[in-house]
Design brief:
The protein is an alpha/beta fold. The chain folds into two domains: 185 residues, 3-Layer(aba) Sandwich (Rossmann fold), CATH 3.40.50; 261 residues, Rossmann fold (3-Layer(aba) Sandwich). The protein is built from 13 helices and 16 strands. The strands form four sheets. Strands 7, 8, 9, 10, 11, 12, 13 and 14 form an eight-stranded mixed beta sheet that branches. Strands 2-1-3-4 form a four-stranded parallel beta sheet, with helices on both faces. It has a two-stranded parallel ribbon with strand order 5-6. A hairpin with an 8-residue loop joins strand 15 and strand 16. Helix 6 crosses helix 8, helix 7 packs across helix 11 and helix 12 packs parallel to helix 13. The chain is globular, with a radius of gyration of 22 Å. It starts with a strand and ends in a 33-residue tail after the last helix.
Length: 458
């Protein structure tokens, strides 16, 4: 069996495109790759329009079946292929685009999906959204990225109250309490603040740069997200944290930012911090793509994962941290409904509000998003701190519940079983075993690792 795969970015280009549209699909493709290898030979495709059908014809001539897995949103799909095509996409809204605009037929996802042999998304929430438009018989599977196994080994380091821990970061680290924030206030941010960050970013990429070393302790809240993605709602995350812990020097919010541009990534957050007044709690910003051991150390130092988004297609960072036994401060909606609960998270209430599909330039209101209760977020922060500081048994129970929930949601076995069902639907042999082939081109980019999946806010 031959399985072809494609995403907009690959191992060589992803480092310079963090935060760009569809950047996260590379990380999803990377996570699926070793499971797909259990079923056949996996071949990366750079140019689907010109390469896919030719490879499929050659495979058929040799008695091999072939399928193409497109790790791209449907509006980026290559149409008209004779090879059975399976879009693999994330979605976090209750409806899918079912209208054409801009003289581009692919903007109507229903037209694309009807031309596909099957589809894969990452949650039952997304499956229901697709079937609202295409009917209950449409062949779509919920298969999350298999991130549990590589992260479960970090459960042994899960602690609520963290002793002093020294982190080494090959990237830019800014401690908001240790810099002159006046550079980033509303009057100076776009001039002096941007220039300061530009200089730091230039220095960051100089050769032989020594890692930043930073010490953390107490209760550490970590969030990994793209700061230019408004759906991540980081303004509430930040303001709620400072509101809850303004006088608590042993509370730290660690923001790992996934954007290639240091100014676009950091400037809005630093500017927002200047509005929130003096505080004793700690806010650390990290910019850069971390090597494996540094990202692992980040997970090890974390007490809680934090999510305040208005919707998630799956949320790889949250899945990774919870697989590692880190309870969460998070809402329970969209894809997260399948793995967060009061057993493993401090849940934040939310309500629905009319919204737009993010790629729709018309800004037509066609779906719903979720708005968090700020007061409830502050409560969740405070309650989680008390558990970490004073109730270690409750923290340990929540930690165990987190990794168990993610094992049920995104283990290798769950993913492989559902992929087998997809392949059977395509009429392909569905037995699987150890990886059948390796491909040097799918490997991590320089300085990246399996934990680079956590660079994504799906």
């Amino acid at each position: 069996m031959i399985i072809l795969e494609n995403s907009t970015y690959d191992a060589r280009s992803i480092g310079w495109n963090l935060g760009a549209p569809e950047y996260s699909y590379w990380f999803v493709r990377k996570a699926f790759h070793p499971i797909l290898q259990r079923f056949g030979i996996v071949v990366p495709i750079a140019d689907p329009a010109n390469d896919v059908d030719g490879i499929c014809r050659n495979a058929a001539a040799q008695g091999e079946r072939c399928a193409y897995f497109s790790f791209n949103p449907p509006h980026r799909a290559t149409l008209g292929l004779k090879c059975p095509t399976v879009p693999v996409f994330a979605w976090e809204f209750d409806t899918i685009p079912d209208e054409e605009w801009g003289e581009e037929p692919r903007n109507d996802w229903t037209a694309v999906l009807r031309q596909s042999a099957a589809a894969i998304t990452h949650s039952q929430f997304s499956v229901r959204a697709v079937r609202r438009s295409l009917g209950d018989a449409y062949p779509i599977w919920s298969i999350p990225a298999p991130v549990h196994r590589p992260n479960a080994k970090r459960t042994r380091s899960a602690l609520g109250w963290r002793p002093p821990t020294r982190l080494s970061i090959t990237g830019l680290v800014i401690d908001a309490g240790a810099v002159d924030l006046s550079v980033f206030d509303v009057q100076r941010a776009k001039s002096d603040g941007a220039e300061a960050l530009h200089r730091l970013g230039t220095k960051l990429f100089q050769r032989n740069q020594k890692p930043f070393r930073v010490s953390v302790n107490g209760v550490i809240y970590t969030a990994v997200f793209n700061p230019v993605d408004g759906r991540k709602n980081w303004t509430d995350m930040l303001a709620g944290f400072i509101w809850a812990f303004r006088d608590a020097p042993d509370a730290t919010l660690l923001l790992k930012l996934t954007h290639h541009d240091v100014v676009l990534g950091m400037l809005p957050i630093l500017a927002e911090i200047t509005k929130l007044g003096p505080f004793k709690c700690r806010v650390l910003l990290i910019h850069g793509m971390l090597p494996a051991q540094e990202y692992d150390a980040l997970v090890d130092a974390t007490s809680y994962a934090v999510n305040t988004s208005s919707g998630e297609g799956q949320c790889l960072p949250l899945m990774e941290f919870m697989s590692a036994g880190r309870p969460a401060v998070t809402p329970s909606h969209t894809a997260m409904l399948e793995y967060v609960s009061s057993d493993n998270s401090f849940l934040v209430r939310s309500t629905e509000k009319p919204a737009v599909w993010p790629q729709d330039p018309r800004h037509a209101i066609r779906c719903m998003r979720h708005v968090l209760s700020f007061a409830d977020l502050v409560r969740a922060y405070k309650e989680s701190f008390e558990v970490a500081r004073h109730r270690p048994r409750q923290y340990a129970a929540m930690s165990a519940a987190a990794t168990t929930a993610l094992e049920r949601f995104c283990s290798d076995e769950v993913v492989a079983s559902r992929l087998r069902d997809v392949l059977r639907h395509l009429g392909m042999p569905a037995a699987f075993g150890p990886a059948l082939a390796s491909d040097a081109n799918i490997g991590a980019p320089d300085g990246d690792s399996r934990t680079a999946l956590g660079e994504v806010a799906s």
